[in-house]
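Anyone? Bumping this.
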Amino acid sequence: DAKTTQPTSMDCAEGRAANLPCNHSTISGNEYVYWYRQIHSQGPQYIIHGLKNNETNEMASLIITEDRKSSTLILPHATLRDTAVYYCIVRTRGGGADGLTFGKGTHLIIQP
Amino acid sequence: DTEVTQTPKHLVMGMTNKKSLKCEQHMGHRAMYWYKQKAKKPPELMFVYSYEKLSINESVPSRFSPECPNSSLLNLHLHALQPEDSALYLCASSLHGGLGALYGYTFGSGTRLTVV
């Protein structure tokens, strides 16, 4: 699986859009970008994933650059409950049951 | 039911004790996982069960013994642990194989283990 690089921490004001970057310059053609988050003392939660097109769901939007070497997770109207560690993970979609490998992630702090 | 349930939520055990962590899901997932998470660190994969058979053991010490009695249950048996084994133990499940990666992994809230 390709390695990812994320900022250690970020702040965002409540009600504003939170934009979390992720670099994955060694991503290969069959690897997807996944985002999970972990709120304090809870298990990680799936947010969104994509291959090359931009994706949107009820939680967030995922913007992937045309060369696929980086992506941005966007939380459109951040609330205090969005304070969490956000993990960007790159992996193939197929294959056996092999679990997720987490990097250090970005600690997003939403300020009131 | 779209949850992974872990019990107990908190556990304190002595180094000579034997205890077990339990994980349960009723989503029809055929892959189940144990992770260990130390404070301020990301989760680390310990074991993977696929169709009730152990498929991955990430060089975990033998004082941790996983068991998958059926497709809905996953246990982690603990014996002779050390204080450095204190951590949050997370269970997760997924549809097997490529479908699991497509639809994501569902995690439980974990068991906070303290070894004294």
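Late reply, but here is one note on the structure posted above: The first strand of chain A starts at residue 9 and ends at 13.
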